Each structure stands twice: as structure tokens, then as C-alpha cells.
Amino acid sequence: MKQFLLRDTLIYLNDTSFNSINKWMNSNNFDNVFIIVDKNTNIHCLPILLKHVPLLKSSFIITIDPGEASKSIEKVHAICSCLINKNITRHSLIINLGGGVVCDLGGFVASIIKRGVQFINIPTTLMSQIDAAIGGKVAVNLQHYKNQIGLFVNPQIIFIYIPFLLSLSNDELLSAQAEIFKYGLIYDKLLWEKCKLESDSKIMNFENMISDCIRIKIKIVESDYYDYQQRRILNFGHSISHAIESVFFSSKKQTISHGFALSVGLICETYISYENFQFSSKKLNMIVNAILSVFPKINLDKNLDEMILKYLKSDKKNQNGLYNFTLIKDVGVAVVNCSVSDIQIIHALDYYRKKCQT
Ligand code: GLY
After folding, report:
1. Number of other CB atoms surrounding residue 112 within 10 Å
2. Phi-psi group of 236: left, alpha or beta (phi > 0 → left; psi -120 to 50 → alpha; rest → beta)
């Protein structure tokens, strides 16, 4: 088992006997425990948690639909009503058992209900184990714009149990690969080399990879918890990917996972970085080809560009009407607060489309 500390939050990685969570539950006297799950984690993960932590057997279970549509203010209202009907108090506990959607939504609910109750995150997807569950950001979406209403608030514990990953599809595991690529590109050249190799061989040592990512995330978050400067390096690839997710989300006909959208965002923002910082085209190709060798090509019709720009305009980091991007100067070296224009974004999307044809 590995243990990390981020501010006051203890992070336990691969405590397969669930000792840490049992001990913590025994040392706290909650008057009520609520577990938020989605329909998948209800089936695949909840029975495992209840078997290993018998104290939780009398918890009240709240089940939501999986997917980004659940991160809504309407869902917050519904969950809060349910919690109040079930007599939640400030001495209750909320456990978020699920991926990024459950952790973001459940953390948001926990931090506003009764002005805040304690919560713990038990992330069940690789994506949430390396990113979403860690760092204190909780939020819901508004009008198809991602994470517009939210807070910084920390769970008491983050408990990462790697065998939960066995219930995931290949696409869900692949999705997380985009965040792992991102950590390498923004912060750690060695991690980039390692994840390139592991994605070639299709064998990943989850425990090592997750702890590498957690270590990086903790260092970055501790240097700038409220996301004004250094933490923004974590946004590399995300300005464009969030806009793409919003476009897909608002079309209602198609959906796209965060990781697949991020693969496009990483390529486009690497292209903008290449133009801004003039690194070699050999380096550009090396990065882009590594991403395209594992991710499917996403069909981004040219007529979506205008909508992508529309969603980019509400990116939380924008200042004085300018897009504020994180870019990279080199593998492992990120630069925050770079101004980027509409035309650069269009060029980057055209570059992505061209790469997909080759
Ligand atoms: N996922 C980006 C951050 O935690 O800042």
C-alpha cells in the first residue's frame, strides 16, 4: 500500500484489505452515511466496498445515471432533496464511489448541503484515480459549459482500489491515457517516455503509473491550490477538449469521452505550442504520432469550428476577452497564461483534420 498527503487529505493507494478505510470509519462517529454511485458502480463496485467495510452496510445509497449529463444543477437539487428527506446532518458522511462525474457532483453536493459535510472519494475509473478525484475541485456544468459552478474543497480521504479498474472497458482505460500523456508533456519527460513505451506494449503497471501521476498532481496542486498560476499547467489540452466536449454534449446525438476529446485537445494545443515556441517539426510529429498511435481519429467537421470557438469564449481562464491557454515549450516544460487567437485555433483544428487523413 502507498500513502500520500495532499493538504489535509490522506490518499491511500491499493490498500487491498481496506484497513485504512475501516480504521477511519471506526474512529469517526457519523450519524448517517450516504453513498453516491452511478448505475455501473452500483453493480460492479458497491458490493466489493460493502463486503470489505461492513460498517457501511446500513448506508443509504443514491444512484445516478452515468455520464456528463448528471453533472447538472437539477441533479444537485434532486440529491440535496433526497439527503434532506433522509435526515442528513452536519455529522453525516457522503462517500462518492465512482468516476469523475460522481466525484465532481458528490463533492459539490457535500460541500454545499448544510454548509458542508465531510466526504470521501473512492474513484473507480483510471481517469478519476489519477486526476478528477484528487486536488479539491468539485463542480457541475451549466448550459453545456463544463464545470461552471464549483468550489475548491477537499475530501477527508481518497481511497484508490486498483481492482475496481477490472470492471472498465478498454475505451475507458484508454481515455485515462490522455491524462497520463498530459502529465508527461507538462511536467515529466521521463514519464512521457515511459507512457509512450507502455502504450506501445499495451501493458501498463497501474500501481506505478497511478502513483507517478498522483505525485505530480500533488506537487502542482500544492504550489497553487486555487489555480491562479502554476496549477494551470494541468489545463494543457483542456481548453480545446472542453469546447469539443460541449459541442458533442449539446448536439445530443453524439457523446465523446473526456479522454478522447483530450487526445484532440493535446494534439491541437501541441500544434499551437509548436507555432508559438518554434520547436522542431520532428518534435511536433513525435508527440502527435504517439497520441494518434493509441487514440482513434475523431471526426471533427469543419462546420463545428464556430461552435468550438463559441464554447472556448466561456473558458474560465479567459481574461480581457482573450483566450488564455497553457502551452508547452518542450516535452516536460509547460508555460501558463499564453494568449491565443481565433485563427491559431482554426489552424490547429485544420492541422488535426489533416493529420487524421494521413
Ligand atoms: N484537473 C485539473 C485540476 O485539477 O486542476
Report:
1. 16
2. beta
Q: Which residue from 312, 238, 211, 297 is spatially nearest to 1, judged by alpha carbons?
A: 211
How far is residue 39's CA from residue 12's CA, in Å, rounded to a whole number? 25
Cα distance between residue 250 and residue 311, in whole Å:
11
What are the DSSP E strand ranges found in 227-341?
Answer: 323-330, 333-340
Tell which residue, 48, 59, 134, has the closest CA to residue 92.
59
What is the second-level CATH architecture of the domain 171-357? Up-down Bundle (1.20)
With H, G, I as helix, E, B as strand and everything else as coil, classify residue 119.
strand
Do 257 and 298 meet the contact criterion of CB atoms below 8 Å apart? Answer: no
Which amino acid, one-letter code, is at 351?
Y
Mean pLDDT of 67-87: 97
Q: Which atom of ligand 1 is nearest to the CA of 135?
A: 4
Instruction: For residue 187, give the nearest of 336, 315, 3 by alpha carbon.
Output: 336
Q: Is the CB of 131 under 6 A from ligand 1?
A: yes
Closest C-alpha residue for ligand 1 atom 4: 135
Are the C-beta atoms of 122 and 97 separated by less than 8 Å?
yes
What is the pTM (predicted TM-score) of this model?
0.94
Per-residue pLDDT tens digits for 289-317: 999 999 999 999 999 999 999 999 988 77
**170-187 vs 258-277: helix crossing angle, rounded to 10:** 30
Q: What is the pLDDT of residue 252?
A: 67
Q: Choose which CATH entry (3.40.1390.30, 1.10.10.10, 3.60.15.10, 3.40.50.1970) describes domain 2-167.
A: 3.40.50.1970
Our mutation pick for probing the ligand 1 site, out of 71, 125, 130, 137, counting the most ligand atoms within 8 A of Cβ, is: 137
* Three-state secondary-structure class, residue 329: strand
CB 30: neighbour CB atoms within 10 A?
16
CB 98 within 8 A of CB 41: yes
Domain limits of the chain?
2-167, 171-357
